[in-house]
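Risk register update: the risk of archive-format incompatibility is retired. Evidence:
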Amino acid sequence: MKLILIAIAVILVTIGLVWLIDKFIPSKLRPVLMIALWALIAFLGYQTFNSIYEPIKFNKVKEKRYAAVIEKMVDVRDAQLAHRQVIGDFAPNFESLIKFIDTAKFTITQRRIETVLDEERTKLFGGVETMKDITVIDTLGYVSVKDSLFKNSDRYKTMMTVPSIEGAKIEMKAGLLGEEGENKIPVFEAKLLKSVILADQNKDLLAQENETISVDGVNGDAIRVGSLEEINTSGNWPKTYGDSE
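Archived output:
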């Protein structure tokens, strides 16, 4: 904004100079000075327009590319959560995750309450039958993870790349979180740096974007889902891009 105000001020001053030249400078010198000053006005006008338009163009590109990356991140998160549900931990890399999706199955279960004899309490009460309720889990069948998450699509095979962004490949790691001697909890993180997503954009605007701290922005220097430092499987994007949970 400061730059814009300065440019506008310079343009106004230049126009004032054109008027002064026209009024007080000898007619022989006027053509050259007038051409130079009007050229300066045109240049400053272009710079002012560009300083306004460049952030608008940057934001349009950013929003389109962020949406494409986040669509991939949602698939990664869903696949990893399925891996945790079936296997008990998170996949360490995309090769393992894709193989899991191709071969694994969810177990379909049903819970029911059944009343049975409580043998301990029956003995305690001298043979008087005492009943208790227990939860029984019945296995009804199995369903493919691939069919459940992706139906007829094979997009999971390329969920690590974003074709519309040159060189964009999501990084993913998995590990365990917890102190030595405790039951450690599986964690994972997938991320793609903004400097990769917006590599061909204005460097100053990219530097500002990397410093984003806002409820309606993607905070930090990357789009990420999950964390290796805390128990968290959410994404760091706002609701405007879709559900981050």
